[in-house]
Amino acid sequence: MFYLNILLKILFLDSSSDNSDKIRVKRKKQKLKKRKQGWTHEEIELIQNEFRSNIFSKTYPTGKSMKEFLLKHKINKTVPILRSKLQHLLKLKK
User: Fold this and answer.
1) How many CB atoms lie within 10 A of CB 13?
2) Is 60 exposed, middle or buried, given 0-12, 13-18 or 19+ CB atoms closer than 10 A?
3) How far is residue 43's CA from residue 68's CA, in Å, rounded to a whole number?
4) What distances in angstroms separate CA 48 from CA 8, 27, 43, 74, one per listed residue?
5) How many domains would you assign to the chain?
6) Phi, psi at residue 58, to the nearest 5°?
7) What is the average pLDDT score of the chain?
8) Is residue 14 included in any domain, yes or no?
9) What is the pLDDT of residue 83?
10) Does residue 6 sit within a domain?
């Protein structure tokens, strides 16, 4: 008897359902994984030539000069990324 009631309910739900009774489920948006871009040899040479005096004096250039450098040479990196590269070059200089 119990199974008969369940079966009748299922049949009733299937026969009476139409498109308006369906529930839409939102799916989570998947983030695209960004791949780290390495520095090319040309970019490293440009950095070393542009900021040579800063590397030898072991000081960091201003953010404005770094931003101008990135725009001038059309390098698709941010100022903090360039600053970390300069930090690496300063460590190599020691």
Assistant:
1) 10
2) middle
3) 14
4) 79, 48, 9, 16
5) 1
6) 55, 45
7) 84
8) no
9) 96
10) no
Does this model's pTM top 0.70? My answer is: no
**38-59 pLDDT tens trace:** 999 999 999 999 999 999 998 9
Domain containing 83 equals 61-94
Amino acid letter for position 31: K
Burial class (CB in 10 A: 0-12, 13-18, 19+), 47: buried
In a domain, 5, yes or no: no
**What is the secondary structure of the chain as a DSSP string?**
-HHHHHHHHHHHHHHH--GGGPPP-PPPPPPPPPPPPPPPHHHHHHHHHHTHHHHHHT-PPPHHHHHHHHHHTT----HHHHHHHHHHHHHHH-
Q: At what angle do helices 63-72 and 41-50 cross, to 10 degrees?
A: 140
By residue count, the chain amounts to 94
Q: Is the pLDDT of residue 26 over 90?
A: no
Tell me the CA end-to-end span of the chain in Å, nearest whole number: 86
